[in-house]
Design brief:
Elements (H helix, E strand, L loop, with lengths): L3 H122 L24 E11 L3 H4 L17 E3 L10 E4 L3 E7 L9 E5 L3 H7 L2 E9 L7
Parallel strand pairs: 1-5, 2-4
Antiparallel strand pairs: 1-6, 2-5, 3-4, 3-6
Length: 253
């Protein structure tokens, strides 16, 4: 029979084996539980990532829809703005056209009045004592001031008659060799203006340099030919705005 000591050792060894076996089972269970927890955690993370991706996709779609909506709204606003601008531009254009037509009408009326005044002045210039040689002034028609005439400034203008007292004879032949034309002929200083030079004198009309005179000296000076002394006296001496229409060549065309 075994001794008590051997029995004790054997019993102790058995208990130790049982404890080791028990601990091994517990460890296995613990590891299994940890593995299950890890798997669950991984699945939960995957689900979370999937949910985040879905949310991100939905957010992007919402942004895209919002952007598209904003673009459509902006386009509609731009269309309305363009339409309003076009309407305003059209209204302004119509207004400008109407104003332009009105100005054209006014300008036409002024031109017609100016032509009538010039023709009346030329007719008045032919009234009085006539010299032996003269030509009647031609009746003018409307001409535009847009011929780029050069403004020469203010000229001192007087009027004269082709009488013996003023010209020494009543032949009516100008320095150019042509008969005098009342209301058209002017005397100038040929040092500055060749015979045949054409001017536009505001308030008188179109005139041509055809004559000279002892009293007509200087660049800004002219003498206007009329037939009536009273008419010449009434015109008197005054300053006139003068434009150069065409420089002469020394001859009257």
């Amino acid at each position: 029979m075994k001794s008590e000591e051997e029995n004790f050792i054997t019993s102790k060894h058995v208990r130790t084996l049982k404890n080791m076996k028990k601990n091994s089972v517990n460890n296995i269970i613990l590891i299994f539980i940890m593995i299950i927890c890890l798997v669950l955690l991984i699945l939960n993370n995957l689900r979370t990532y999937s949910t985040c991706d879905m949310l991100a996709y939905q957010i992007e779609e919402m942004k895209k829809k919002h952007t598209d909506k904003d673009t459509v709204v902006k386009q509609e606003i731009n269309k309305k703005v363009v339409a309003q601008n076009d309407l305003k531009s059209g209204e302004q254009l119509n207004k400008l056209l109407a104003e332009n037509e009105y100005l054209k009408k006014i300008n036409k009326n002024i031109s017609e009045d100016n032509v009538s005044l010039q023709n009346s002045l030329k007719i008045a210039a032919t009234v009085g004592v006539k010299p032996k040689n003269f030509s009647r002034p031609s009746i003018i028609t409307s001409r535009s001031m847009n011929e780029r005439w050069k403004y020469l400034g203010k000229f001192k203008g007087t009027a004269y008659t082709p009488s013996v007292s003023e010209c020494g004879n009543n032949k009516g032949i100008t320095y150019s060799g042509k008969p005098i034309i009342p209301g058209t002929t002017i005397a100038v200083d040929t040092k500055y203006w060749p015979i045949g030079t054409e001017f536009y004198v505001k308030g008188i009309g179109y005139v041509t340099a055809m004559d000279t005179g002892n009293a007509v000296k200087g660049k800004n000076r002219f003498d206007f030919a009329v037939f009536d002394k009273k008419f010449a006296f009434a015109l008197g001496t005054r300053n006139w705005d003068v434009y150069l229409v065409r420089m002469g060549s020394g001859r009257v065309k």
